[in-house]
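Data card: per-record layout.
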Amino acid sequence: MLALGRNIERCKTSCKRFLKGDRRMRAHVSSSFKRFLISYLIILLIPNLAGYLSYRTSIDVAESSSIENSTMLLRQSAEILERKLAEVEGFTKQLAINQDLNLLINEKRQGDAYNVFGFWKTMRDLSGYSQTNDFLQSFYIYFQNYNVILTPGSIYYRPEHYYELNHYVDEPYETWKETILQATHERTLLPARPFMQDKNASSMLTFVQSLPLNSFGNPKATAVVLIDERKISSLLESLTSQYGGWAIITDSSGKPLASQGLTKANSQAWQLSMSEARTTRKLDDGTLLITVRSDKTGWMYAAGVPKEALMGKANTIKYMTWTLSAAALLISLIIGMLLSYRNSVPINRLMNVFKEQVGLDTSRIRNEYDFLSGNISDLIANNKQLQTELSLQMPLVKDAFIKRLLAGEFNSAKELEAVRSQADVVFLQPYGFVGMLKINGYGGIDSKEIIEELSAARLIVKQMLHELEAGLHATDLGSDKIVMLLTPECEPDKDWQRAFEARFVPCMESMYVNYRISITSVMGGVYASLSDISRSYSEASQAMDYAVHMEEKRLVWYEETMRESMLYYYPMDTEQRLMNTVKAGEASEGKRIVAEIVAWNFAERELSIEMKEQLIGEMKGTLLRLLDQKAFQDGDFSREIQERIAALRLSDGMEQVRQSMECMVDDFCAVIAKKKNELQHEMLQDMMKYIQEYYQDPELTIYRIAEHVGRPEKYISQLFKERMGESLSDYLESMRISKAADLLTGNGLTIDEIASQVGYNSAHSFRRAFKRVRGVSPSLYRQSAN
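The structure for this 786-residue chain is written out next.
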């Protein structure tokens, strides 16, 4: 108690010095710090109260623990002994049913002749029994008819010879022969007596059984098992070695069978206390006596636990309790102050943030938690409101994406897919039609009333379109036009066009009947991919000019318009899309655009020779402008492509021209792919070099690697996975584990030090990672390496 008081005083003094000396901590001593500290001090009372209660109950716990352990050990010893004795009894029963043995017992002796083979065979059969139970290491069988003793290793044709080597010290031969060999026994167990065996003194218990079983005064043979008292006493060593006491085993009549550590004084005290019926009681010298009686044999197992053993454990608990309580109190006070400081600092910082950013006066606030929770709730509400406003803006984002598709502003399929995913626009199929609808009767009128009427008409038409076809996307084009992207469920053909027209035309007629809305509707050609939508939109625009000029009232398809034209079709946006596609290295998309240009102008138009020559000249100019890019400045490649471009002639046939241009697109894209491959290879080498240099840093992450190479995390992760066959994080972990394995082969560093050197914050995470990669723990790996 005095030591505890001194520790408390020292703790108080340290706390006062800590509070006075640390100016930074004093600056943050606020009401939140005080609340944290008070709560921790209250919690400290719990371990101290638990220490006091443990001290008060230590003696009772020690005594009950000793009683339980001793009783359990006694019962275990009893079970083991009875099981082994049951095996001995089972051994005699096996002898009773042994056919060879029964033949020897029951056969009549012919003069002085012996059944030597029968004895030899029986001795060989019995030699294996001594290996199954250590109680059967010394036994013999006496045959009345032959006057022979048979042991597992020898045959004694005269009992006198066996008696000379193995006999009780206080028992003559005749008495032994009369009471053991010739008397009738039924599972008889004789107490331990001094015994001479091969001129070695010992103490033996004797188990005797007459054969056959239930001989009733006329035994033909006797099986005798000699059990060394030391083997029984060894079962009690666990008691005496643990508490330093003594133990004894008696039979049902109270005769001692075996003992361990029993002195003459202990024996007298034990015999005087056996008259009491309790299983646990204290002797005069303070020894705790524990007894267990077997229900099967009636034997008594007793153990004496000295008083010193009981009180020694209690004293140890007492000293450990007070020492640990004092140390825990001191350490907990220091930790409580540090935790109070650490937990109050973030709250104070948040309060300062609100003070600086929001302009609130936090000095007069009594409850920081209520203040923070209220303001954070406002932030969450504002965030939800912002999300709601963003969701309201999604239609505008989708509309902008559709307009960019129609204008053909996407340079690559990856860019298109990224923007489509961000706008959350879903296309049921990659193919379809671009349609255009014009509301008639409002040309050149821009009054406020007309604009509002057109807006209402567009809403009605869009609603009708969505009800007519699932997966349709529509956007406004000016005040009187609507463009729709129509995606068929199956491959579009003439039958599908007729079926769609059969559903579409009645809807247009009902619009006029119900709302007096007159509509001119056209459909462009089929687009085969999303990047081809701009071409179908251009065709729809041409079809709309035709339908307005011809005053068509039906649904007009682009292929139904006039195909003869004096001009070729090669708009600037298509040329720019071709160049961007080639610079992106997408060969298949570039060849598809070339094939579409040829199809638009030679399959769907009837151009003159001059227009065809001009078209080929424009396309050759596009390829020459590509050569001006820095990626294609290689001298040999540039000269070869210029020669191939100059060799393009209309006289070779348009199919040959198309194939030549597609081959050049392949060559351009191959150069881009080579450049990309070189850049990616350099980037991979830079990443691996960076990892090799900084793998020891626990803060090394994919974000830092991406920041180093100047690319997004997702890009470098996907690139590393594609080129190296494993993820970037797995590569980093594999390198760290490989370096750790090299360090584990030496004996200079501990596992904790190795974990720190290879970039792990804790040894626990290092052990888990090492076992996951190498299949064994670091310690086992070090042992196998050594």
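Known properties of this structure: The first strand starts at residue 139 and ends at 143. The chain has 28 helices and 17 strands.

See the next section for split statistics.
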